[in-house]
Write a structure and sequence with these properties.
binds heme C; about 210 residues; Cytochrome Bc1 Complex, Chain D, domain 2; 2 domains; mainly alpha
Length: about 210
């Protein structure tokens, strides 16, 4: 009786140890993989600006889909990310995405934004963007964070959506109805001349 309990305790301790050490090993691997990204995306994925976007705190699903879309290159144009994404297996992408998703989106870059424009943009954003990019663009659950993202990056991507080079088909979570809504919301914004205002609004969020 006593002996079997000792075995049970020893086995428990051993499995406990294995559990901890493999978790630590995969944490270490994820952070090692992520080191390559930090050179451009900033410490733990929060950008010093201006060219690379912040990737910290985005939802894991979105990060995975983005890397896969870059890899394919069909509906997610990039200057550099296709070459980078191609260097990773799906399993590695999963780990890297998990790493950055667990970090906080920090707004450390100084951005030159126009406060009058930003104020004007607030109303447009509420009207046309808030239904998906909730909490004034801070929400990360289902869509990418826009609040405090780098202004040139936001602008490039808005224009990519508007021209159709970047497609929201990247995100299989969305229904057809929502896709149409998104297309319409950018077109409405352009018609109302609100593109700059909305971009300054999101970029100015602290
Ligand atoms: C040489 C600089 C550089 C490196 C290194 C780099 N990136 Fe990027 N990343 C960029 C740039 C610039 C963009 C904007 C798209 C483009 O022009 O390629 C971007 C965009 C992204 C985006 C899109 C963000 C969004 O909001 O949709 C993700 C995700 C991303 N990178 C992940 C990574 C990961 C993960 C790594 C490391 C494996 C990495 N990047 C390494 C420069 C870099
Ligand atoms: C119907 C939902 C919906 C609406 C409305 C919407 N978006 Fe989006 N937006 C998305 C989705 C989904 C993505 C991510 C697409 C992908 O996975 O590539 C996205 C991505 C973006 C991106 C790129 C972010 C990044 O990190 O790469 C920008 C910029 C953006 N939206 C701006 C806007 C603006 C500005 C408005 C309002 C005029 C708006 N969106 C309205 C769903 C929406």
């Amino acid at each position: 009786m006593r002996k079997s309990m000792t075995y049970a305790l020893a086995a428990g301790a051993l499995f406990g140890l294995i559990g901890v050490s493999s978790a630590q090993a995969s944490d270490a691997e994820a952070s090692m993989l992520a080191n390559t990204c930090n050179g451009c995306h900033g410490p733990d994925g929060s950008s010093y600006g201006p060219a690379a976007p912040t990737i910290a705190g985005m939802n894991k699903f979105y990060l995975v889909e983005s890397m896969k879309a870059y890899k394919m290159g069909t509906n997610r144009p990039s200057t550099i990310m296709q070459r980078i994404a191609k260097g990773y297996t799906d399993e590695e992408i999963d780990k890297i995405a998990g790493f950055f998703a667990s970090k906080e989106f920090k707004r450390i870059a100084k951005q030159d934004t126009d406060s009058a424009l930003a104020e004007k943009g607030k109303a447009f954003a509420k009207d046309l963007c808030e239904s998906c990019h909730e909490k004034e663009g801070y929400a990360a659950e289902d869509y990418p964070i826009l609040a405090g993202q780098m202004l040139p990056y936001l602008r490039n991507n808005m224009m990519d959506f508007a021209s159709g080079i970047r497609s929201i088909d990247n995100n299989p979570n969305m229904s057809d109805k929502e896709k149409r809504k998104k297309k319409r919301s950018i077109a409405d914004l352009q018609e109302k001349g609100g593109v700059d205002a909305v971009l300054h609004f999101y970029a100015s969020r602290k």
